[in-house]
Amino acid sequence: MSEENNLNNEENHNQQDTITKVGGMYKDWFLDYASYVILERAVPAIEDGFKPVQRRILHSMKELDDGRYNKVANIVGHTMQYHPHGDASIGDAMVQIGQKDLLIDTQGNWGNILTGDSAAASRYIEARLSKFALDVVYSPKITDWQLSYDGRKKEPINLPVKFPLLLAQGAEGIAVGLSTKILPHNFNELIDASIKHLRGKRFKLYPDFPTGGEMDVSNYNDGNRGGRIRVRAKISQMDKNTLVINEIPFGTNTSSLIDSILKANDKGKIKVKRIEDNTAAEVEILVHLPSGLSPDKTIDALYAFTACETSISPLACVIEDNRPLFIGVSEILRRSTDYTVELLKKELEIQLQELEEQWHFASLERIFIENRIYRDIEEEETWEGVIQAIDKGLKPYIGHLKREVTEEDIARLTEIRIKRISKFDIDKAQQKIEALEGEIEKVKFNLDNLIDYAVDYFKELKKNYGSGRERKTDIRIFDDIEASKVVIRNSKLYVNREEGFIGTSLKKDEYVCDCSDIDDIIVFTASGKMMVTKVDSKTFVGKDIIHVAVFKKKDKRTIYNMIYRDGKGGATYIKRFYVSSMTRDREYDLTTGKAGSSVLYFTANPNGEAEVVTVHLRQKGSIKKLKWDIDFADIMIKGRNSKGNIVTKYPVKRIELKEKGVSTLKPRKIWFDETVKRLNVDGRGELLGAFKGEDRLLVINSDGLVKTIVPELTTHFDDNMVVLEKWNPEKPVSAVHYEGEKERYHVKRFLIENEGKEEVIISEHPKSFLELVSTDWKPRIEVEFVKPRGKDPKPNLEVDLEEFIAVKGIKALGNQLTPDKVKNINLLDPIPYEEPEKKEAADYDVVDEEEVDSQGDEKGGADSQISMELD
Prior knowledge:
Elements: H1 2-42, H2 52-64, E1 70-71, H3 72-79, H4 87-99, E2 104-107, E3 126-129, H5 131-136, E4 145-147, E5 154-156, H6 165-169, E6 171-174, E7 179-182, H7 187-198, E8 214-219, E9 228-232, E10 234-239, E11 242-247, H8 254-266, E12 274-277, E13 285-288, H9 295-305, E14 309-312, E15 317-320, E16 323-326, H10 329-370, H11 383-394, H12 407-414, H13 418-422, H14 426-448, H15 450-465, E17 474-475, H16 483-486, E18 491-496, E19 501-503, E20 510-515, E21 520-525, E22 529-534, E23 539-540, E24 545-551, E25 559-565, E26 572-578, E27 588-589, E28 598-605, E29 609-617, E30 627-631, E31 637-639, E32 645-648, E33 652-663, E34 668-673, E35 678-680, E36 686-691, E37 697-701, E38 705-709, E39 721-726, E40 733-739, E41 744-750, E42 759-760, E43 769-774, E44 780-785, E45 797-800, H17 801-804, E46 815-818, E47 822-828
Helix pairs in contact: 2-3, 3-4, 7-10, 7-15, 10-14
């Protein structure tokens, strides 16, 4: 038994050792693989902004560069000497560089970033280095080299890029455990920022995309992780039924954008008649809308439900010292600029060294020839003797040289040809030496003033290459679009009040309203419960439903008026409240929660209307007053958690509506959208004014119809409307009309006395018509007369309508304007008039109370009793 146990223990021990070894191997292999992907494939280096494949492509193109175009397939094949991967990855990387239109001068079909079309095969397209790349990317004398992967070639460790190329091109890559997404920035703005950095000034950098569009950079966060920008297409209205998209968001193309619009249309989020894609060199997508659809609302819907608005999360990750580094774009620019200064310094130092060497040898050459030292070697028979003779001959003349004379210098002197010695010109040699001295001084000056030299370098780059690289993406702040306000209502909502169901499939039950599949529905029941739930085909929300509607978040204008009995046999309370937010699918109690509580009266008022109701009590004991009125306007508006004011402690028989109320909220601003002739509160179109509950709109049509209406957002207006404004009952309306029976123009001024009634201000004669109408306090008109035959034309007549006729009734014919034949009647600028100020009583406003979160309700205490309570 013990031998068997020993065998088992030994076997288990061997298995454990094997698992440990294999686990260790996989751990090392994974780390090696992850490090390789991060360092050698996916993430760019901070020094030059290139990934290895990009750097090797640029190096190969420099080796092949002769000023002419090379086949891309040839460049790809040459790059494979340095890049240990397939030709497809090299070709794709090269196309991406070429499409950025900065380093590579392309020829042929390189694809289209606007339409998403791919490039032609590498054997059909050609490329060469751009002048910018030749000026900025290469400097072999200051480049550090390493052996290629097979040891046969040398390749640059980093290219000496003297420009913030990483930010200009952008970069994107997915490695193991991390990724990078650096957005492209504007060429000229990067240069300006570099100059500001060199001068010690602050700067701000924001992306700029080749596709244009608009962007909101409020949360860009300097390109660090956690930041976000919103990018939108540029959409404009061509006519009332057509929208045109001229610029698209970065990261999309016309094909994907159109697909997203069609999908949103199929889902019922928007309505589109058809789409035309006319994109060629520039984007042009025509979106045709069905008649009667608001273009402004559709534009918002395109941003809300399609790829016309996208969100981009930048993540700036680079390689520094063989380690990934998360860094902001401002710091990338600072380091790139400082790196450029360092490279410029190295180039100047090398240039200075070369110039000093040239000066040194030119001086030696002059001494050697001018003093005929070459004759000293005629008698020498050995190389050592020649060197010594020249060295001895030079010594009396080299005191001004800046370094010692080496054997290599003397060897170069022996290589001077006799022809050159015979034609040596001392003056020209001196001029050359002086020219070299001038260049040396200039280089030394630049080294002493390196920052100014770098600033001039960047300015020269902008001058030579900045033309045509202006910002394409507009920066602005976006308004948040609420999807529920712009979505097309493509479903119908039904309710079964008794059983407590709501949904879009209950077609046999009561119709409530149109809704969309993203709407929330608010429901109130007779027991004083409330719930908000998502639209669905069928949802149980509680029996005895008394009110159901589409819920609007953050809505404090819809006021609910409620009277309820607190528990079975308890007191009756009155309250006014709003519901601006709540937890979905959670049941809330609007009463105190006592068993048997019930709602006795309930209304939902979209503009805070407050009605008057009559309370009837049951006959009980010695109660004297069984009936009285309550005005909801006397009740303060609070949150839904308020208990309310006590109405009575006696049993209530019934509550009746006595008088409809008007709004008790602050005036609401209303605009008119001329395109679809609809009112809105979203700021689209012309501002008509701020409206209280009793305010009305004045509407006058060209057929003489005059009316005042309540400004409801659902109101439709006719195409022949000529006046739409907030009605001032004290301001008269002036009208010039043609009386068909009398065949004369008449003028009338009137006030509207019958509020809400439609009236016609011209006669029923078929030839009668309304010429013009004005709501100015002191209007003026100009009358042009028909020229009589054989007579001079009658001069134009200017008429002050206020003086011409007094204000009369709306049915009055008015005063005859003129007996002469009229050619035209024009409305002139009115006489200045200062409208009298109105003193209005202060309105109630919503009491802003903290909303209850999903953790639970906290009931407020009882409010003060109202004066109608009985003893």
